[in-house]
Design goal:
By secondary structure, this protein is an alpha+beta fold. Helix content is 32%, strand content 16%. It has a domain of 250 residues: 3-Layer(aba) Sandwich (Beta-lactamase). Strands 2-1-12-11-10-9-8-7 form an eight-stranded antiparallel sheet, with helices on both faces. Strands 3-6 form a two-stranded antiparallel ribbon. Helix 1 packs antiparallel against helix 14 and helix 2 packs across helix 13. The radius of gyration is 21 Å and the shape is globular.
Length: 394
Amino acid sequence: MKFRLFLLVLFPLLSACYFAPGPDVQTKSAEVKKPRKVETRLDTFAREYSRYFEEQFRLTNTPGAALVIVKDSQVLFIKGYGPRVYGQPDSIDENTVFRIGSLSKGFAGVLTGLLVQDSLLHWTDRVQEYYPGFVLRDRKQASRVELWHLLSHTTGLPYHAFTNLIEKDFSVDRIVQEYFPTAPVSGKEGEFYAYQNAALCIIEQVMQQKTGKTYGQLLTEEIFLPLGMRHASFDYQSLMQEPDKTPPHVPVGWGLWRADKISPAYYNATAAGGINASISDMGQWLLMLLGQKPQVIEPTTLDEVFRPVVKTDKERRIFPRWLPRDAASYAMGWRVLDDHGDTIIYHGGYVNGYKSEIAFNRKDGVGICALFNAATPLSNDCVPAFFEKWKEMK
């Protein structure tokens, strides 16, 4: 783990769009004549999808968004859309910071994988080995719960157990100590799936007990710094101090929006929904998830993180107009979707009025992330449209 702390990271200067030179490339057409670039099929795909995204951005009256597309080791396209604050002139760019909500769960799965990779943890370690305070009404079941159960929402707890207390700013430790012992068990660990926030965040206490470092320290040292995620953070104070950020927005009439307050909610549950990031950060994150950063995480570790462990067909349907109910499973902080034979790794996020989407196909080496500063219909359609257009291009 220590060798990653001293990696030299190149921070690529990304332009507002891949097709234009970056801000540090000060070429003048009168002085330098470059040969005309021949557009590839990938260029065409990125251009056509970005045209779709921009058109839907306008049609849905979305106040602000940011989009990144990656292919193999390349950031194919990156751009911000709309103002940071509705009615004001400053525009969203590739470094504007959003809250990413439940996309944070994917970081928890990968960070656990990194500690497993370094032999500090094992997926099958019992939670009580590190956190004896984890107790359920069924004491025997609690004693059997393992780390992978936390990350796959298969502890046996009912749907969204004590999420209401997370939203009341109770600490996870208090919730676990005072309320988990009274929690009914709805199914067998490892077999019964029910989406969680509080239970998943127990992984933070496990990591701190094992390493002596906070979850935020580990995120920074193991992921943010090695990947060059310069704008990523995990707390309310960091976001409030960030000059290039966009607040959430609420509708006040058709096509009209009002900037809302940034809430401290869910920063008490970082693993579940407390990360802040820009779209340039998420582009680097996507490259790592596609296996392009083997110096940070081994491909076999990613295989373990993305291995589906439980079907989620009893949950609300994921993309009902695109995939059948039985096409979705859950892995370690990630959803795994069967797109008619193609495997799509996916997660969506919603917190404090922000929405976010991330999805990628490891076999094809292609991925997308979109961040929004409002609850917009575009967030529901951008991922299916991306892979439908990708298939057409292939």
